[in-house]
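Good morning,

Both structures are done.
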Amino acid sequence: MRPAPATNQFTPEARGKFPAWTRRWSTFLLAAGFLFALASIVTKSDSNWPEALLLLLATISTFAALARHLPAHNVLLAAAIIALIGGIAHIFGAMSGIPFGPFMFGSEIGQKFFHTLPWAMPLLWVVAVLNSRGVARLILRPWRKIRTYGFWLIGLTALFTMLLDCALEPFAAHAKHYWIWTTTGYSLTPQGGPLSNSVGWFIVTLLILAFATPALINKQLSKRSAPDFHPLAIWLGAILLFATGTAMHGFWPAVVADAIILAVVTGFALRGARW
């Protein structure tokens, strides 16, 4: 009798992807990091390392979750493109005020590359863009077969990245002083950055997606998959964290704006997930 062939756990579909336990543990650690950062904000701690740790855990968890659907090298390539373009945009922004408007990074944001770019900014771009794209995919599930789906996905990703930054601005600039705006102007949200900042995030995200999208497309034919709520959880968790921070400093108009963003996006995402 011929022995039965051994089952190869590294099938062609799974080869190159992160192990399942990586996603489970990264999600658990992210939830713990979120609660710890939230407690630090509520108690008005002067330490910024809980938020830094949360950003690192969010980056790892985003990688692990996305690698369930894509090869790991595709995920890392897309992340590298996002971090590179986003980082360069903020270097130019800090030096010239283009494309976000004139601002200065504060000492509270941490160490800087070349005394210009804070280490957290490239990771912030990666987390914001990849999870905004995941939220957009969830909302667009009913229309994923239409020809213009790709354009809608890119546009909504840029929009949700911009909205995430709109929620971040009051927390980062006014509550935490990670950066300081040296000009005043109309903002999309109360206590936020100038309108040029929101436009800059939208345009830079479009530029990023022009280069990163090919690495994020799953080229293998597969059956209809279940909705992925992981990006939505990270996206909404970030909004909740920023809203809590602005509330603790009394910026109530910004909290109301964050609540509206959170409610609208949640409603559309749950509607899309039912398809």
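Second structure follows.
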Amino acid sequence: MPKLVHYFDEPFADSSAIPTYYLSQLTRQHVTVALGGDGGDEVFAGYLTYQADKLAQLYNRLPGLLTRRLLPALAQLLPISDDKVSLDFKARRFVNYAPLEPGRRHYAWKAFFDDVLKRAVLSDDVLNSLEGALDTYPVFQRYYEAVPNHSPLNRFLYTDTKVYLANDILVKVDRMSMAHALEVRVPLLDHRVVEFMFRLPGNLKMPRLGLKHFLKRTMSDILPRKILTRPKGGFNVPIPIWLKQELKPLVMEYLSPTRIKACGVFNPETVSRLVADHMAGRADYSRNIWALLVFNLWHEMDNRR
């Protein structure tokens, strides 16, 4: 982890940087330039959140008693799992944010901290300096509202391309590949491909709930069927269980009340509660703890320079 933080030189909390680092290391043993599939999800509609957005439209047609009370309560009863992206995690996030308006809903599914948790986890000094401005949705909203005449799916694709792809995915691959002197090129982001795809209506890219439908149809005569029909895997890693096992010593060291207080950015009591609840299996705060851990590692490394 200190090595990852060193190469990013900023508090970058996408844990898929870990497999990207090792994949780049392995690839560099054979070649100096590689092709990556980055942009495929944003241009061809490949994220599960796009399926969730469609399902939310149906979900919100149900009676309010179900969507606002009964189903969220049932989701809270699901046992906490240590799987990478578990059913209980997806169910809770879905029912919590499905009732929101489309743009804010899509953003919320990607965010680690909601405003309530932000307010609890930030120190009083930071909260006072922010003067209550905790909402980070405007960063996403700026692009979402720039294309009001597009279909809902194309608005999400455009916004994810401008925000998530540009500031997370491409940064991650660039830093982790260059850590091994590997150059990764992204043919799916050729401007001609991107421009052509954004001229197409959303229903061609994602009929019903199929992900990357257009890309699969285009490549159906080239790729083996087992590739075309393989379920989406993603580059997630089992952070929930790693934090309880292999990474636990690092968590207990860098997120201790003493270290958190010395940092001055976060509330030691809240951080300790998140760690204790996660370690005891009372909740899955893995993404939050990972982000806090990365930040504190970066903060201490930066202060030592």
